[in-house]
Specification:
By secondary structure, this protein is α/β, with parallel strands linked by helices. The chain has 9 helices and 5 strands; from the N terminus they run αααβββααβααβαα. Among the domains are: about 30 residues; about 160 residues. A hairpin with a 5-residue loop joins strand 1 and strand 2.
Length: about 375
């Protein structure tokens, strides 16, 4: 706006200079300048008024647009805040649920730790370990072969020489009767794997552990491999997978020693596999036995069927002969019937008259 006023003033000066240069009267100049000043003042006032009104309208429109955009932005922000709050609330609830589950799991772990400690205290006694192994062995046998299946296995079986095996398996030939005895060499094993002990002491307990296993192998081989009574092999059952893994991984000499004695060392997992194989063999034998019985019955049925066939052939020939006779009788019957029909059609009186005439002519 200031620039416009300056431009107008410059224009007035230029007009004045031009008027002076043309020798215009001073009075005319004054009058013109007055009118010009009045006109300029009016135009400037009108311009100020229009400019202020336009500027006010523009500011009002801009304010309305800004207010609309701010309201829209505010709504979106509130919506996002609500969504984030809802998600945060769900996440918080999920975290609380998981924390509660973790607390429950922690309690179960603590309870399990207590049970393990109590189990360890129970297994420190040899008799308790023996009972634990026998119960585990019985559980495996009953799961594979069923409860009280005396035809396949028995618990606490007494042989003729008076020795008692934890279990005996009546396997098919050539295996025969196999004794299964449960052993649990735990004391020296625990000390052997105890990292808190010095290396020399752990090596000492390792030797004792191996000697314990060898003694168990010798006892099983001498007691439960009986010529002409049992199979030439027996099974030593270790109810702890960790001990079995220790032997198979780091003590191959013990495994070889057991193989020479014909004693097979098993864990719960490997024993289940062995028993499952024996169960499959038993089922196949039963299937083969019934297959042979079925074959014998089929052979008998074949003989009976041949007899039936021969008799049926004879009966068929007899039926065919009777059928031919019936057909011949039917043909004869038809002929006789036709004869009777032709006889019934003959005129007897006419026949007599003809005969008399023939007699007269002859005379």
């Amino acid at each position: 706006m200031e620039y416009i006023i300056i431009i107008l003033l410059v224009s007035i000066l230029i007009v004045c200079v031009i008027s002076l240069s043309k020798n215009i009267n001073e009075s005319n100049i004054t009058e013109r300048l007055g009118r010009l000043e009045t006109s300029v003042t009016k135009e400037i006032g009108d311009f100020k008024s229009d400019f202020a009104r336009t500027l006010t309208d523009d500011f009002n429109k801009l304010n309305d647009k800004i207010e609309v955009k701010l309201n829209t932005l505010n709504e979106k922000v509130n919506m996002r805040i609500d969504e984030n709050f809802e998600k945060t609330n769900k996440t918080f609830v999920s975290v609380l649920e998981r924390l509660s589950k973790i607390d429950e799991a922690q309690k179960k772990i603590e309870s399990l730790s207590g049970d393990i400690v109590s189990l360890q205290s129970v297994l420190t006694d040899k008799k308790s370990r023996g009972i634990f192994g026998e119960v585990n062995l019985k559980h495996i046998l009953s799961n594979v072969f069923g409860e009280k299946n005396d035809a396949i296995y028995r618990m606490q079986y007494t042989f003729e020489n008076g020795t008692i095996a934890d279990s005996v398996l009546f396997a098919p030939s050539p295996l025969g009767t196999i004794a299964i005895d449960s052993k649990f060499p735990l004391e020296h094993y625990q000390l052997m794997v105890d990292k808190s002990l010095p290396l020399s002491e752990r090596e000492k307990h390792e030797k004792e552990f191996k000697n314990d296993v060898k003694r168990h192998i010798d006892a099983i081989a001498s007691k439960y491999i009986i010529p002409s009574v049992t199979s030439d092999q027996a099974i030593m059952f270790l109810p702890a997978e960790a001990i079995f893994a220790e032997l198979t991984a780091y003590h191959q000499d013990i495994i070889d020693y057991a193989n020479k004695k014909r004693v097979w060392i098993t864990s719960p997992t490997t024993l289940i596999s062995t028993l499952t194989v024996i169960q499959v063999v038993l089922k196949n034998m039963e299937r083969d036995k019934y297959a042979s019985i079925i074959q014998q019955e089929l052979e008998k049925l074949s003989v009976d069927f041949n007899l039936y066939r021969n008799r049926w052939d004879k009966l068929s020939r007899s039926i065919e002969t009777v059928s031919n006779d019936v057909r011949n009788v039917h043909i004869t019957t038809e002929k006789i019937s036709k004869r009777f029909a032709s006889i019934n059609k003959v005129d007897v009186d006419k026949f007599i008259t003809i005969n008399e005439e023939e007699v007269g002519e002859n005379e």
